[in-house]
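// run 5 | inverse folding | seed 20
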């Protein structure tokens, strides 16, 4: 027997009671563990580790700073960014041909974890820290991870489709713009005031179009597919919420892969 606040309980009764209690869920069906921000922290850690690996791969170069962006504050390319950035199809200095159209599909994923310099990394990680923890707490870890990855993947597909085939792009900003859009959608769904997020979103869009060497297609693609994913997560009917959310996510991924295949066929034609 186990001592309780009033009297005693048998172990079997306690175990049965625990099984009958439903775990706490968020408003959109996610797990309550999201309030700890584990996914957000893990994503930041991965980006930091990849940045260190990128700097280490560029012996004597300008991986950390000294590139051309922001008046030289952004870093330059490294062997790692050359390997993993979004690249349609191009001829390298050694005469080899590479790019997504040549079968390097991993670039559509790896590009969202690579950055051109420490400043580029810090700007994106600050935004991820601010937006990510709030969204993860509302959506739960799994749904937030799906939102982040699909927004980042969608932005990279957009960069692949709409950028010059020999132009390299990388950065977590595709996913970050998706988080901006998702924050707006989620706040509207919860009936909260969105006046605070709109000016920040507009400023970032102005920044996207005004600053040279920023992937406009990547940012807008992340924004669009982040918004679509947020709509799926936020407006799925409660009765079949998980099924609708999973199906909607799968449909978005199928659409993105279809766009990538069309672009690949055009580049190889």
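// decoded
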């Amino acid at each position: 027997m186990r001592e309780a606040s009033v009297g005693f309980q048998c172990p079997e009764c306690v175990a049965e009671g625990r099984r009958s209690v439903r775990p706490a869920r968020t408003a959109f069906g996610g797990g309550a563990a999201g309030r700890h921000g584990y996914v957000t922290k893990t994503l930041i850690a991965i980006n930091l580790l990849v940045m260190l690996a990128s700097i280490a791969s560029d012996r004597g170069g300008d991986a950390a700073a000294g590139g051309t962006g922001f008046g030289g504050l952004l870093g330059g390319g490294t062997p790692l960014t050359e390997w993993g950035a979004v690249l349609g199809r191009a001829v390298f200095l050694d005469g080899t041909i590479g790019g997504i159209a040549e079968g390097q599909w991993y670039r559509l994923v790896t590009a969202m974890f690579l950055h051109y310099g420490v400043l580029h990394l810090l700007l994106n990680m600050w935004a991820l820290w601010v937006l990510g923890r709030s969204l993860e707490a509302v959506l739960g870890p799994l749904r937030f991870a799906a939102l982040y990855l699909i927004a980042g993947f969608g932005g990279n597909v957009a960069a692949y489709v709409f950028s010059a085939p020999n132009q390299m792009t990388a950065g977590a900003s595709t996913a970050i713009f998706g988080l901006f859009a998702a924050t707006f959608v989620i706040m509207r769904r919860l009936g909260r005031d969105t006046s605070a997020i709109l000016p920040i979103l507009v400023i970032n869009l102005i920044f996207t179009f005004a600053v040279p060497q920023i992937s406009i297609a990547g940012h807008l693609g992340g924004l669009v597919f982040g918004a679509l994913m947020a709509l799926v997560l936020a407006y799925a009917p409660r009765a079949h919420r998980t099924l609708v959310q999973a199906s909607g996510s799968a449909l978005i991924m199928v659409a993105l892969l279809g766009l990538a295949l069309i672009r690949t066929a055009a580049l190889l034609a």
